[in-house]
């Protein structure tokens, strides 16, 4: 590297949960930087606390640049710290652009007869949703405005898309078969 040339930026992944992505706000991190010792000029590793502002709905791959917070090269100053947003996998939800997708298990009877169901939300709660007719394995229910915030349009959110896994009984008696046949003809 030439004298006076810029120091190489310090690039690190910033892995966020879907809850953190949805909420946005401030995230406190501890980073390890290499800084020149004021006496000897040798590089030493230093732990440093950094507060990062997250826009609600921030997207995977977004690069957050913190000027002068990277490593230092003697005589050249500090590089920038570049945090690259990564989304952690979630056990129940998947992000698709601004929408959240989840799958709900329903017993067959409820899939055929329920007027409403409780749908899980990313925050850990549930939302009552009215049903219009029977639910099939191909049904996708859209709940407008309950997905991820749209970073470019504050106040707007994507949808919550609910897919269904229909649970069939493990056994059906002859009498139940007869009743089902009569009811569904």
Can you walk me through this structure?
This protein has 185 residues and is mainly β. It has helices at residues 18-23, 108-113, 174-184; strands at 10-16, 25-36, 43-54, 63-66, 72-73, 77-78, 81-87, 93-96, 99-107, 116-120, 126-130, 140-143, 160-167. It has 2 domains: 10-87, HSP40/DNAj peptide-binding domain, CATH 2.60.260; 93-170, HSP40/DNAj peptide-binding domain, CATH 2.60.260. Helix content is 12%, strand content 44%. The strands form 5 sheets. A 4-stranded mixed β-sheet has the order 8-9-13-12. A 3-stranded mixed β-sheet has the order 1-7-4. The protein has a two-stranded antiparallel sheet with strand order 2-3. The termini are far apart. The mean pLDDT is 90.
Describe, in short, the structure shown.
Helix content is 12%, strand content 44%. It has 185 residues and is mainly beta. β2 (25-36) and β3 form a beta hairpin.
